Amino acid sequence: MVSIISNDSYQTLVAPTVSEVEALESPIKTISEISPGLTCFAADSGSCHGLIDFGSEDSSPLPVVDSDGSSHEFIDSGCDSSPRSTGAEAVKLDEQPTNVKCVESNHQLIDSEFSELDQHGLLWEEGILGFEPLWSVEPKIEDIKKTVQSLGPSSTVEVEFLAQGGFNKVYNVTVDGKAFIMRVSLPVDPHFKVLSEVATMDWVREVTQLPIPTVMNFQSSRENCIGFEWMFMTKMPGRPFNDVWLSLSFDAKSSLVRQLASSSAALFRRQFRGIGNIYGGPSSTLDSASSSKLPHIRNPIKATAIARMDDLGLEGSYDLPSNDEFQNSWLTLDRIVSMQFFWHLRLRQRVSRGPFHSGKDWIAARLAIIGNEYQSILDRLQVGNLTEDEQDGKDDAEQTLRIVELLIDLLPRFFPPDHDHEEPEPSAVFHDDINNNNLLVNDDGELTGVLDWEFVSAVPLWKACDYPFFLQGPSVPSKPDPDRYPCKRDGTLSKLYHDHLWGYEATCLRSTFIDEMKKLDARWVEVFDKSQHLRDLDTAVQNCDNSLWWRFINAWIQDIISEKDKIQSLQDRHHQNQFRPL
């Protein structure tokens, strides 16, 4: 396993399989072109030595060796060459071209942009299910109160801890009797996480009818009284859908689903080009205290292009709204903010973080970052006697890398060369974590709030055209019979019954959602119907390092390799395992 980089986007990827390398007839030869400008080179030893980008299209990328025949690759640190021996034959050091940009193949490379990351207060602790973020410093209630008081004149400010999520602590704030929320964030992706979330919420509020919080003020730097990034926003009324769904009528649930379908159609019509997160927006002017500290945004795409549907090979095109109806000239599409890109030490890897030209590039970058991480683990565990836990870690890393290799090999099947986009691929903003807890409703089941807009990106249309997350799950065609389920000690029905009941209702509500989408925008349904294989690929990439998914992913991959006539979707394989009817 090795790393290679792209000529055009400078992204790290994982090399082809050993079998491809062994098929070489010459000592140094191109063995794989995963996408245009993205090539891997290997020697006759079967080891791949990476791609060197010489900064021009007509320059030939080559590995280099010194006079004793030892091969080297170079770390890009302002073109200050720092050789690392790899022991293969190639051109000599004195033949090295200028302005070389290279990447080291031991997967330990640290991007200089992130080498000085300020992630004060964040710890990663390894547990049974992997690394989890922890707070090494607790925000102080008094500091939050002082911060709120500094935002404007007020007679009374009360602050009370409300809840803690994966990356945030949430506080109820009352200012002169009015309710607000203060959300303090761990610096998992400093600056970018908060900046993008604020812009996304501003934009979604403008183009949909969804009730979402209004950001009153925010800080995307820790250089403030609280010592962390924060967002101060309006508090949405209502209760989590999870708390009340049993008491709601099915008509109320259907109405809720139709409202979510309406927002999906609205977001589908307001398309971007490229894959990444959106930045900018009216609220960004509020962050004046930290604006001078923001990192440079390198390759933004002005987010004014709205894709035509004929770019997708579908009939028809959108009538673009006039400037009076809608404009997003204040937006840019830039680097992605995603858990798969920052988890644990991943933020320090030198890989492309977008904006991505295509879904193929986005998938490839995700595989690269996973491959780099687990190759680093494997390298560390190759030497010496291993404990039982270390051997388990080694086995897990090897299995993950095998799946990563297989998925890379399959990319041309999912993204044929004739489907490459000359312009950035059309995309749409998609909230992929609308669950039973961040949907707020009133006692009648009417939607009162949609929360948690962090990590919401503009993704390929084949990803964006999907059910809301809370509706996804196994197909349960018949309503469960309560008489067949055990009761709890208090006489109420068990959680298993309620899980199966929700499975049945969600199955029915998926039909409601699709029926509504057919009325609102049949083109959304057309993309949805033709894209299950790509959503399965996305699912495989998302879960390729999750041992609970390995047998499903491996079976799905083997069906693709063997070219079965009818291949069960990966999502269905997993969903069927979750549901066992009584």
Features:
single chain, 582 residues, alpha+beta, 5-stranded antiparallel sheet, 4-stranded mixed sheet, 24 strands, 32% helix, 18% strand, globular, disordered N terminus, Aminoglycoside_PTrfase, AGP_Transferase, Kinase-like_dom_sf
Radius of gyration: 26 Å
| CA distance, first residue to last residue | 46 Å
- Give a quick account of the main beta sheet: strands, pairing sense, barrel closure: 5 strands, antiparallel
| Beta-strand content bin | 15-25%
Q: What oligomeric assembly is this protein in?
A: single chain
**Low-pLDDT regions:** 1-112, 282-327
Name the helicity range.
25-40%
Could you tell me the mean pLDDT? 78
Structural class: alpha+beta
Trace the largest sheet across and list its strands: 11-12-13-15-14
The best one-word shape is globular
Organism: Penicillium salamii
Domain Aminoglycoside phosphotransferase: 387-457
InterPro entries: AGP_Transferase, Aminoglycoside_PTrfase, Kinase-like_dom_sf
Protein name: Aminoglycoside phosphotransferase domain-containing protein
Structure description:
Residues 387-457 form the Aminoglycoside phosphotransferase domain. This is Aminoglycoside phosphotransferase domain-containing protein. Pfam families: APH. InterPro entries: AGP_Transferase (IPR051678), Aminoglycoside_PTrfase (IPR002575), Kinase-like_dom_sf (IPR011009). The chain is an alpha+beta fold and 582 residues long. The chain has a domain at 3-114. 32% of the residues lie in helices and 18% in strands. The protein contains 15 helices and 24 strands. The protein has helices at residues 18-22, 141-150, 192-207, 241-244, 250-269, 288-291, 339-342, 359-380, 388-414, 461-464, 495-520, 522-530, 532-543, 550-561, 570-578, and strands at residues 3-5, 12-14, 29-35, 38-42, 64-65, 71-74, 83-85, 91-92, 122-127, 130-135, 157-164, 168-175, 178-185, 215-219, 229-234, 239-240, 272-273, 277-279, 301-302, 332-334, 426-430, 439-441, 447-450, 457-460. A 5-stranded antiparallel sheet has the order 11-12-13-15-14, with helices on both faces. A 4-stranded mixed sheet has the order 7-6-5-8, with no helix packed on it. A 3-stranded antiparallel sheet has the order 16-22-23. Strand 5 (64-65) and strand 6 (71-74) form a beta hairpin. Helix 8 runs antiparallel to helix 9, helix 9 runs parallel beside helix 14 (550-561) and helix 11 crosses helix 12.
